[in-house]
Design a protein that fits this description.
With 301 residues, the chain is an alpha/beta fold. It contains 11 helices and 8 strands. The longest helix has 19 residues. It is globular and about 55 Å long.
Amino acid sequence: MRIYSGERLCSKCFTKSIEDKVKATIARNRMFKPDDRIAVAVSGGKDSTTLLHIMTKFEKLFPKASLCAVTVDEGIRGYRDEAVRLASEYCQRSGVEHFITSFKDLFDVRLDEMVALLKDKVRTSNEALSPCAYCGVLRRRALNVVARQAKADKLALAHNLDDEVQTILLNIMHGDAPRIARVKPVLGESHPMFVPRVKPICEVLEKEIAFYAYLRKTEFQSTPCPYAPTAMRNDIRQMLNRLEEKHAGTKYTVFRSVEKIRPALEAAEKETFLHACKVCGEPTVGETCKPCEMLRKIGAK
């Protein structure tokens, strides 16, 4: 039973309801064109594997469209190896072309190595530098690069409803409320080197995606990232889950509230102009892009 809506669904109707919700999100936000080449970011977890499965079903409705998968290996020993393997095996079974890149290939440093550098930095400067903050910035860059290499028109990210609401609250906690305007289903960048990002499952609860994957008997990595407990996002996730348990529908309410105020936030946001980073040549607002600044800060090459 869906407590927030009062629906009682059998397994078949539940599965269809998830696919219908994703289809409605795609249509309402006009995410794709009939001849788009779509790169699905696949990590090997339940969300991205479910998104890829649903997208392969939808692809059959658009003969001119093409689908591929992109994966980033951050370099986390004992964790990411399994995820990359599961993603590759799923793509092989589904007949989906798969592109893989890594932090080592792009930045010449693995995340584990960055964490060691971060610890040294904290000891010498007392700065609280989070591994997740570095991973998030570099992962976004890596996904854009590999999607561009795959000649994709759109990059589909497996951000679920929980992810979106957590990001909204994180921006508030970090004192960056205007950035909430960028938490939306479609994020198109006004630069030829950016691949527009879309979030087809952004209106589906995480636990419903997990149940969908369970019903389909999907094999995915269920072990959480070893660095996740260090991030504020983990605390916000727990807080939201407690609120949702007591007040069903809380997550949807926050998401819908932001949808209502987003136009005002976008209107208040200053227009930015992009140019090439003086270090790596990727698009950036300042002289040096955020990935290059972060890598330089910890003394990486």
